[in-house]
Amino acid sequence: MSRAAVSIFVFGIYLLVLGPTLVVVPAFLTGLFGLGSPQEVWIRVLGAIVTILGFYYVFAARRETRDFFWATVWGRPFVIVFFTAFVLLGLAEPVLILFGVVDLLGAGWTFTALRAEG
User: How many CA atoms lie within 13 A of 67 on its CB side?
Assistant: First the structure.
């Protein structure tokens, strides 16, 4: 597995842990970050989507799908942009930005690996 594929694979595993946690025990995760107890189904819907994305990441990593790797390099930084906007608009707690930081760091890791591999 190339270094870029490893970065995508690791991020996929992160998503495969995060997603089911949001589906099965969302209050654990939201409580851990001081976000309060979720009362609506939307956090579980998000968890389902995150889980599916995790499968895509793992699948693409195992297949060395470089076009997908590049797409994530350009797409993942938008997570921090949106999450920061939500915080600035008063729609979310600042801790949400930490999840955007994870995406940004992951994108940076993938970008660095892709550039090093030519």
Answer: 0
Contacts of range 99-102, beta carbons closer than 8 Å, 24 or more positions apart? 102/14
DSSP string, 64-89: T-HHHHHHHHHHTHHHHHHHHHHHHT
What is this structure's pTM?
A: 0.92
Tell me if residue 109 falls in helix, strand or coil: helix
Q: Sign of the CA dihedral 38, 42, 46, 49?
A: positive
Q: Which of 23, 63, 64, 27 is nearest to 46 (CA)?
A: 23
Top pLDDT among 108 and 32 is at 108
Residues in the chain: 118
